[in-house]
Amino acid sequence: MDVPETRYARSGDVSIAYQVLGDAPFDLVRIPPYVSHVELAWQIPSLAAFYRQLASFSRLITFDKRGTGMSDRVSGAPSLEVRMDDVRAVMDAARSEQAALLGVSEGGPMSVLFAATYPERVWALVLDGASPRSLWAPDYPWGASEDDWLQSIESRGRNWGTPEFVASRVEMLAGSASAEDKAALGVMIRQSASPGAAVELARMNMSIDVRHVLPSVRVPTLVVNRVDDEGAALGSRYIAEHIPGARHIELPRSDHAEFVGDCKPFMKELDQFLSEAWEARAGAESEPERVLATVLFTDIVDSTAKAAELGDARWRELVQAHHGLVRRQLVRHRGTEIDTAGDGFFASFDGPARAIRCACAISEGVRELGIEIRAGLHTGECEHIDQKVGGIAVNIGARVASEAAPSEVLVSSTVKDLVAGSGIEFRDRGAAELKGVPGEWRLFAVETAAL
Known about the structure:
alpha/beta; Rossmann fold; about 450 residues; 8-stranded mixed sheet; single chain; elongated; 14 helices; Alpha-Beta Plaits; 16 strands
């Protein structure tokens, strides 16, 4: 197979570099790790051979995420939500209506979120050397401490691109690779990102946590790791335990890079898994009944007193102006109006950052009308019921809203964990018991939501 031509997909104002190789019946989109370069990848003999093996049984689509490789350089790091938009743009440009995703290392969390949010675009999910979270937590004890992460980020900014730093990265990723592979991998790493981009990406990765999303993945899933790749092995085991029905395999070796060494066992497992999932897909063409979504609830503060103060006619005019403002912001932020009851709105979004910014825009906008709202958001698995959404996630969103103060946008910890890299800042509001919802819930008030 010849080296494929690099093309560009437009995602908003950003160009995303991608390539397509092979002509098999089904599509496989490789979600790249920390940094990548679609053209320099072909200078690494083992990676080039790996791509060709994938393309022997799939139509392989590779790309560089924004800010890396041959894609446009951008300010800051892309959030998971923005990266999902980029994947959809690449799939659309490559005329891929539905694909299997191969999320490699750092590409794993976004792949999980994409599969749960857009199950109609994904028929299988493969996670290779991925972890759902980077930082230590009491219920995730194998994560790194925040101090260690910050020291690592500082070191990357100071040393990125130096021969010593690149050599250390290559050894960590592909210690058993040939000298030729290591040299070419070092060149690719150095030219895939600037020091600033490397720092921003690392800072975003430090804050990612998709553990709450794992039970919402409903597509066939294969989780792969190398036995002696200790950090990734622990994260992969966690993922496999929490995605319903996931198949988990552990392969020999310690290299983190999936293309190093004997890839035959991996290719055999992958080919078999994708073939089975593709055949099963033929009998399951119905619309997904469950999907990951962010729900938003708003209502006007002290509406009864305000209505009494204004009288029926003026109150009706005010409510109409409020509704018009809310609906304009829903359109602007790609929200879907689900229900309107009196002075309250219930809407859903396919991205939590868009939902937060919509809520903040509504809160700011209604002040000009002389009123305040309270808003609450939660991200979770929702059921499609008669063209609406329902389920426990909806109940949680409504309860979060009831805890909000006037002019406050309040979110669950799940929402906060999914907007790393978005620039949105929060204030910890502590734990709360939500009526009718088991356990304590950590809530956060939005402080700033600038684009």
